[in-house]
């Protein structure tokens, strides 16, 4: 792709030199502010993280950090705390991703129907989107603690100090909070499906279920793939909810990978090791996204 | 996939059946909506309850005795007013900065021809996959090297490095009709004037949607302010809220719920007024892939 641009410019070089050169200058000038920001705070850090992850990083005197090769990664493989965090994260993903996807899809399809109070329903389901994780975490902490609504009406005592119930409590808060984004995307996607397809199907006497399977889902395929990947990636990086609601407890049962990374870096000051944890998480996320993409969208084209 | 829709089994769906389905639909939707509202209700109701109601054995959902005690308490005993101002400033600066910087590069990538721009766009698209969280440690180190700890820019710049806005704007900028730009160029407009007098006004709607999105995102951001703002006078609302409980020493549900109300009401109001733009901003993200 880059080649075609180049040759284009080369052919017109002689008479266009000045205006083409000017366009180059203008083009790069307009691009520079973002590029510098991204270089300093996105791409640079990515490289530094890799560098740090192969060092025994000295937080106070970085110059004295020692190169240790893959030692940090080797430690990580044998680190039971990391595996606990990974297991907790997978558990959280299992508890949140299916309800978020299925829930947002059902609500989007429902609201899209000919119902009264469409605007009200959309507003309610979309509203948690504008809340900060701090509010979500504190609000649900009050709901789930010993004197809160859940303990009184449903039981289970203080869910957040229970080994078995703490993670489900965090998951419920997360589903409530995170459904909104997918709901809006899927609602827009459903509205983009042509009505004519359904009219034709109805003439042929197709059932609602068949229309769902043969028209709605295939037509909404791309947005659905997008939503699945984004939800997986988001859930895998959960941090704020356990940080606020349980601080990883009781006995590490809600310590997720990012919470573990955060503690390793900013409580224990093991920067090199934390960078290695970050890279491993990155690889996991790429693998998950690729797998999702392969299974959901890969067989087409 | 072929849409083979023949062979429907329920040819003559009876009237009662349709009615039952409609009832089920309404019950499902409004039932879920009611469940969604309970946390909000609980938050608002608790913030107006007297101490006796808050600490009673039964968790009350209705404030039988209304008081503004907790609001007064928070104003007198915390820096919540200052945190609100800090949050507003941070979100404002970030929004402006991101809009300008992202619009500039989106213009450059779509409307100007320069060597390497396709490669650069490819790299920006790819960087979409990088989870911000893995950069937690190195960005913190860079920020502290540059003296940005406890500075607004320590949060603004890492937020501005996000490729999402560039990505969203490129979709719109590439659809600007070329003739408009050419006409302006013939009139002797410089690139900068074309950008500021033609492109920006034309792109008002997507820019507003992006701006609203960035504003809300920054208002709510948690991890970066938590790392960068280490003084109580610099906290944003999300950080202040979380530290409130530790500072008080005891859990005060009245204080917690009231602070949650104060932190979320501004955005809920913005949301009610500008829901259309926010929906547009979310949809812009859905169409990017």
UniProtKB/TrEMBL annotation, chain A:
TM ranges = 31-52, 90-109, 129-154, 166-189, 220-239, 271-296
Q: How does it sit in the membrane?
A: Multi-pass membrane protein
Transmembrane helix as UniProt keyword: yes
Q: Name one GO cellular component term.
A: plasma membrane
Q: Looking at the keywords, is Cell membrane present?
A: yes
Keyword annotations from UniProtKB, A to Z? Cell membrane, Membrane, Transmembrane, Transmembrane helix, Transport
Domain ABC transmembrane type-1 residues, every copy: 86-292
Q: Which InterPro entries match?
A: ABC_transporter_permease, MetI-like, MetI-like_sf
Q: Which SUPFAM superfamilies match?
A: MetI-like
Q: What is its main location?
A: membrane
Q: Where in the cell is it found?
A: Cell membrane
Protein family according to the UniProt entry: Belongs to the binding-protein-dependent transport system permease family.
Recorded protein name is Carbohydrate ABC transporter permease
Organism of origin is: Saliphagus infecundisoli
From TrEMBL, chain B:
Q: From the Swiss-Prot or TrEMBL record, state where the protein is found.
A: Cell membrane
UniProt cross-references to Pfam families, sorted A to Z:
BPD_transp_1
Residues spanning the membrane: 23-42, 80-107, 119-143, 155-173, 194-219, 254-274
Which terms in the GO cellular component ontology are assigned? plasma membrane
Name the major location.
membrane
The protein's UniProt keywords, in alphabetical order, are: Cell membrane, Membrane, Transmembrane, Transmembrane helix, Transport
Question: Which stretches make up the ABC transmembrane type-1 domain?
Answer: 84-274
Per its UniProt record, what InterPro entries does this chain match? MetI-like, MetI-like_sf
Q: Which domain of life, per UniProt?
A: Archaea
Xref: PROSITE patterns: ABC_TM1
Q: How does it sit in the membrane?
A: Multi-pass membrane protein
> Hey, which family's this protein in?
Belongs to the binding-protein-dependent transport system permease family.
Q: What is this protein's name?
A: Carbohydrate ABC transporter permease
Q: Which organism is it from?
A: Saliphagus infecundisoli
